[in-house]
Write a structure and sequence with these properties.
Layout lengths: L2 H23 L1 H7 L7 H31 L3 H29 L5 H5 L3 H28 L6 H27 L3 H4 L14 H5 L5 H13 L24 E7 L13 H7 L3 E7 L5 H10 L6 H6 L5 H8 L3 E6 L30 H19 L6 E7 L1 H4 L18 H29 L6 E6 L5 E2 L7 E2 L6 H4 L3 E4 L6 E8 L3 H10 L23 E4 L4 E5 L2 E6 L2 E6 L12 H10 L6
Helix pairs in contact: 1-3, 1-4, 1-6, 3-4, 3-7, 4-6, 15-17
Length: 597
């Protein structure tokens, strides 16, 4: 056997041995998952566990070793490198399991920098232990490669692992489409695990979304969320007093704070004269999913996977249903796409309206249809019971005003593409503002305005490369343009005014729970925010996207990516030699884990 061929054979079997080793080390993840009710989902969990840990063991090892093997096919060079790589993977997974057991989050580059000196010492011990084990494995596998090879065994193993990977992702996609909680709840237990979503099955017509959701709601009721979540941390002590107020929550997708002007949003600007305007209000994310999660739950959207996995709605929605509120829930875009409201804020709502269906064109057409449907629902409701209305408009994020709608801001000749998009965006905001103005006028005609709390805000902002750094749209940066959103509240009995202190979406749920239902619990029992009408403001705010999150402070932003982190200043410029705000990061990490068991 040639030297290069034997080394390649050794690398393959050494990767297999490391996969088995990591599966032994990672058994802790399965142990914590076992707290869920036993079910057929264990088949999926084992397939996902075997497939994913095999990938974590094999892919980095082979990718890093392969170039060296091609250039220097010498066992005395290759084997020590393999031992070092294997030891690093062993020690990091062992430490990750311990961190997850203690804090319910996985390691990242930022959390590694936050480790205490004694933890680094333990990591060193784990690495030395791993080196001893990996050395024995490497030598044993090297000796085995001197024997005649069985041509089929390796292929069978590769096919088996590949089958586990493919099967687990397909099962997860099917389970997510069918709202099967025992499967979807497993995602957060594995590090760096991003299973396949369900959109393909829905687009192909393989799943009836409405039927699957209703069946999923029934099944979810049998899954106690308190086995996974410590939410709320204490039973709510609430005592509401008459009169019972209605609530209308209007969310305009991607409306940023500086769009709330008389020129762009005249109807909302008129509303602010008789309402309370929060001038320094921030979303809990730069994307719809994160922003809406923080709005309804009052928690960092880093919890999204944990709550969506067991379809646990927020205590705010629990209280609306407990007090007999009629739910008029209308969203322009489907609630089951990127925003995931059907699995979180609106989970377990029977007969949930999943999308707005209309023959009108585009997002602006759906927004018009949504408004008409709201009028019809309001006319048919039971007037003896209070209502919670939720109107979620979409045209600004889609930059889609009706074709014949006049531009709000003229576009000069030769304007850049982003300048033209910004003008169309403001026009879409103006269009939705006209729809919301009609909704408010209708409430007045029905004599409901003086018995209804009206809240208007957005899930996140929108950016058009104003800083010249290439950031556009949303979900691309945690900048002022994407995080700063309007918040206007008209609350019967409360004097109008303007609030200049820093507030966030995390404060909305505590405000409603205290003001409507008389909940006496400290807000920390169920949220990360405070009552909007208190005198407190946030010193730091956790904001999330889909794959990363940020720690926002008044003078800097720390962005945490899956494979690293960066720190930017108030103008969102990179800080060359940043100092990690360690105490704030520690507090944020605690806040992102204290509601998980």
């Amino acid at each position: 056997m040639g030297a290069r061929k034997r080394i390649l054979r050794w690398a393959g079997w050494f990767a297999v041995a490391n996969a088995v080793l990591l599966m032994v080390v990672g058994l802790r993840y399965l142990w914590y998952y076992s707290a869920l009710t036993p079910s057929p989902a264990w088949i999926y969990a084992i397939l996902a566990y075997v497939g994913h840990l095999s990938i974590l063991a094999c892919i980095p090892l082979l990718l890093l070793l392969f170039p060296v093997m091609m250039l220097i096919p010498q066992p005395r060079v290759i084997l020590p490198i393999g031992v070092v790589l294997g030891s690093a993977g062993f020690s990091l997974l062992l430490l990750d399991g311990l961190v997850f057991a203690e804090n319910r989050y996985h390691l990242s580059l930022l959390t590694l920098t936050m480790l205490a000196p004694q933890t680094w010492a333990f990591l060193g011990v784990y690495f030395l232990l791993g080196t001893a084990i990996e050395t024995m494995l490497a030598v044993w596998v090297w000796r085995r490669t001197a024997r005649p090879a069985s041509r089929r065994t390796g292929w069978y193993l590769a096919l088996g692992v590949g089958g586990c990977v493919v099967a687990s992702h397909l099962i997860h996609a099917g389970a997510e489409a069918r709202y099967y909680v025992p499967v979807t709840a497993f995602t957060r237990y594995l590090p760096l695990y991003y299973p396949l979503g369900d959109e393909g099955q829905v687009r192909l017509g393989l799943v009836d979304r409405t039927k699957a959701r209703e069946e999923g709601v029934i099944a979810a009721l049998a899954q106690p969320a308190d086995r996974v979540l410590n939410y709320p941390q204490a039973p709510l002590r609430c005592e509401s007093h008459p009169p019972t107020l209605n609530v209308l929550l209007v969310v305009i997708d991607a409306m940023r704070a500086d769009a709330l002007t008389p020129e762009v949003a005249p109807r909302l600007s008129e509303l602010t004269r008789g309402a309370i305007r929060f001038d320094r209000h921030y979303s809990g994310g730069n994307s719809s999913r994160a922003g809406m999660f923080s709005l309804f739950y009052g928690l960092p959207a880093t919890y999204w996977e944990a709550f969506a996995g067991v379809t646990r709605p927020p205590v705010l929605m629990d209280m609306f249903r407990r007090h007999g509120y009629q739910l008029g829930l209308f969203a322009s875009a489907p609630v089951y796409r990127a925003v995931g409201l059907d699995r979180t804020a609106l989970a377990r709502v029977p007969n949930l309206r999943l999308q707005t269906v209309t023959s009108r064109r585009g997002s602006s057409g759906r927004d018009r249809a949504l408004t008409d449907d709201w009028y019809e629902w309001l006319s048919g409701r039971d007037p003896s019971r209070p209502f919670f209305g939720f109107l979620y408009y979409d045209a600004p994020v889609a930059i889609d005003a009706p074709v014949d709608y006049p531009l709000v801001m003229p576009v000069p000749p030769g304007a850049s593409r982003q300048a033209r998009r910004h003008a169309r965006y403001l026009t879409a905001v103006h269009y939705v503002d006209s729809l919301v103005g009609g909704v408010l006028e209708d409430l007045g005609r029905r004599k409901l305005l003086e018995s209804t709390v009206v809240m208007v805000t957005s899930d996140h902002g929108m950016e058009f490369d104003e800083n010249g750094q290439g950031f556009t749209g949303h979900g691309t940066a945690f900048s002022e343009y994407q995080m700063h959103t309007p918040l206007v509240i008209r609350w019967p009995g409360k004097a109008p005014g303007r609030v200049g202190r820093r507030t966030s979406h995390n404060d909305v749920a505590p405000t409603l729970l205290g003001g409507l239902f008389g909940c006496a619990n400290p807000a920390a029992d169920y949220a990360s925010g405070q009552d909007l009408f208190s005198d407190r403001q946030w010193e730091w705010l956790i904001a999330a996207s889909y794959a990363d999150y940020a720690l926002i402070e008044p003078e800097r932003v720390t962005i945490v990516h899956p494979a690293g982190y960066e720190i930017r200043d108030r103008e969102y410029r990179l800080v060359a030699n940043p100092t990690i705000p360690r105490e704030v990061v520690r507090a944020a990490l605690h806040e992102m884990s204290r509601f998980c068991r």
